[in-house]
Amino acid sequence: MSEAPLPGGFVQHVVRVGATVRRPASAGTAFVGELLKLFEARGWPGAPRYLGIDEYGREMLTYLDGHVAWEREQPPAVYAAETLERVARLVRAFHDVTAGTGLAGAHEVVCHNDLAPRNTVYRPVGGTLRPVAFIDWDLAAPGARVHDVAHVCWQYIGLGPRVEDVADSARRLRLVADAYGLADRDGLIPAILWWQDRCRRGIEAAARAGDPAMVRLRDAGAVTEVRDAFAWVGAHRDVLARALR
Ligand SMILES: Nc1ncnc2c1ncn2[C@@H]1O[C@H](COP(=O)(O)OP(=O)(O)O)[C@@H](O)[C@H]1O
Ligand SMILES: [Mg+2]
């Protein structure tokens, strides 16, 4: 069967083969396989199904039909409040599936660790695009609920200098925390800053070490962009924190 490269990945060479997706196996492949099998066993529909390893050693996953929001310009539905609420509820659902399992180990849940519109499949629901699944689980690991929620806030609200209305972003932050049912409100802004700082350092260090994907990201302006986003959240942290109380 023919292979079609899938657009939108920055890191992996991902191809579609019929109704399946193939991606290079990574250090996390065994864990991700177990996680996706857990979702299937529990009937959670928000992730691809794990189909094993193909003859070239690649992970095989089900291809999920829909719109993956990896391009910079997106239809407004991708950022709508209703969409944000649905994202938060989807995250809550898979966190709850993993809580207390061996995969979460001593941690609260299994975190996806890269939740963003570019890793989300949207489908029309009543004529409007809404999030239905997350892809790109290879960074998944045991962690704290607030970590994924913080990543969601950064990436889906787009917290950074491109925000035109800080009060609106603060309301959206509240919306995500409420829709998720987040208990750790005080941890949210520190976790957003932690992600931004870690992301910038990670890209910088890996690019310096010559990792071609990270060199591409850095040269495309990602380091500067993430540093500016970190500074923006720091500058507005009081307004953002107030909205959460
Ligand atoms: N299971 C899937 N169903 C549909 N499309 C997928 C699936 N997995 C990946 N893709 C497509 O391939 C692209 C890259 O895959 P992704 O897993 O996000 O890789 P990367 O780690 O490079 O970001 C995505 O932007 C999406 O368009
Ligand atoms: Mg991706």
UniProtKB/TrEMBL annotation:
InterPro entries: Aminoglycoside_PTrfase, Kinase-like_dom_sf
Domain of life: Bacteria
Domain annotation Aminoglycoside phosphotransferase: ranges: 106-161
Residues forming coiled coils: none
Pfam families on file: APH
Annotated protein name in UniProt: Aminoglycoside phosphotransferase domain-containing protein
